[in-house]
Structure formats: C-alpha cells, structure tokens
Design goal:
By secondary structure, the chain is of the alpha/beta class. It has 6 helices and 9 strands.
C-alpha cells in the first residue's frame, strides 16, 4: 500500500489492523502443527524458531491469533514502512532491511534483540518472483541458531488482490483458514553458500508440500 504522507502511514496502518481484526473475528481457525512447540501463538519455551511465510499469505499469520514473542524482518522500502507500522500495532517488533539491502545490520539486530523471540520473514520478497524461495530464510536461521519452520496458510474462500509482483489473499467473512507448520529444519551456523542453497531448496520443497496439503484440506466441506 502506497501512502504519500508519512504522517498518515501510522494512522492508515492502525486503521487496517482494526478492520482485519474485525474480519478475522468471523473466521474459523484450524491450526495444524507438526510439533506443538512451534506454535507461535503461545508463550515460547526454551527454543524459538524462524518462520517462513509467503508474501501473499501474510494476513493469516498476523491475525489468526496474538503472538506473544515474535519479531519480523521487514523490507526497508515504503511498503515495508506500512507493514512495520501494522506489526507495531499488533505488538510484533521488526528490524528493517533484507538479506540484499541493509541485511547485515538487520540480522545483527535480530540476533541481539530477538534471542527470546520467534523470527519471521517473507522469503520471496521484496520483489519476487512469487513464492520463489531466496536464501534469506536459511541465512537468518543459520546466523541466529533458530531452526526453520516452513508454513502454509489457506482459506476456503478468499479474494486475491494484486499488489504488484504478487497478490494478497484476503479471506471472505465467515470462511475457514487452515494454518500448517512442517518439521523444524536446523541449519548449521557454519553452512557454506552452497549448503545454504541446498537448504533453501529443501525449505522450498517443504513449503510447496504443505501448501498442497492445505489446499486439499480447504477443498473439503
């Protein structure tokens, strides 16, 4: 969302948060976690994780429940400012940057400030291609020591709104959302560039598998 006035950005973000909170009050939630400890909607135990979420699925994890200990890596572009303001309204901290721009400082911040938090990022951003995994998720997980949790989110009924290189999926009122997480993938801190590429391919395959499973679940009545 592009807003010309920087003064209006926080106001618009808070307004969007209120509207989506009201929408998600009408929606039934089905949360399917392979490992109970990877549930980000309960206080974390000793272990915290790195969550990968596709850009077009971003609304679901933000609004299906309150996340008591989550921080996010958010792009430094103008759209990222709107998202960071919205996350602030939801009680989710953020570090600005990406693995390609400002990433080093952002990762250092997350390592220091996010030690007791789950971390989340959208690995197909900031410019796509849609649902194509970049190495950012594997890189962040290796540097922080937090295992990767692949995810999938699907609605039975939704609108798909174009936002540029991808679409944003917005649930219709009174539908059902299915949230899946896969097994944790622990990436060695010493992983080389080639090994990070291999891990990225594995995460991509698991995200694709989970999404196919979520689609099948959403088709059932």
């Amino acid at each position: 969302m592009r807003i010309r006035s920087r003064w209006l950005e926080p106001v618009a973000a808070w307004g969007a948060v209120i509207l989506f909170r009201l929408l998600f009050l009408t929606i039934r939630k089905r949360l399917i976690f392979v490992e109970p400890s990877t549930n980000p909607y309960i206080p974390p135990g000793e272990q915290t994780y790195t969550y990968c979420v596709w850009h077009d699925s971003l609304l679901a994890p933000l609004f299906i429940g309150r996340q008591p200990a989550t921080m996010a890596l958010v792009g430094g572009h103008r759209d990222g400012t709107f998202l960071a303001n919205a996350m602030d309204a939801l009680g989710i901290g953020s570090a600005r940057g990406s693995t390609s721009a400002g990433g080093t400082a952002a990762v250092r911040f997350l390592v220091k400030e996010g030690a007791r938090h789950h971390l989340v990022l959208t690995p197909d951003g900031p410019r796509g291609p849609r649902r194509e995994m970049k190495t950012g998720c594997a890189f962040l997980a290796a540097k922080t020591g937090k295992g990767v949790v692949p995810t999938a989110f699907r609605y039975r009924s939704f609108w798909s709104i174009g936002t540029g290189w991808t679409n944003l999926e917005i649930p219709m009122p009174f539908t059902t959302v299915y949230a899946f997480t896969g097994p944790v993938m622990q990436i060695p801190e010493s992983a080389s560039r080639e090994e990070l590429d291999e891990w990225t391919a594995r995460i991509q395959a698991e995200m694709d598998r989970l999404d196919a499973e979520a689609i099948e679940m959403a088709k059932k009545r």
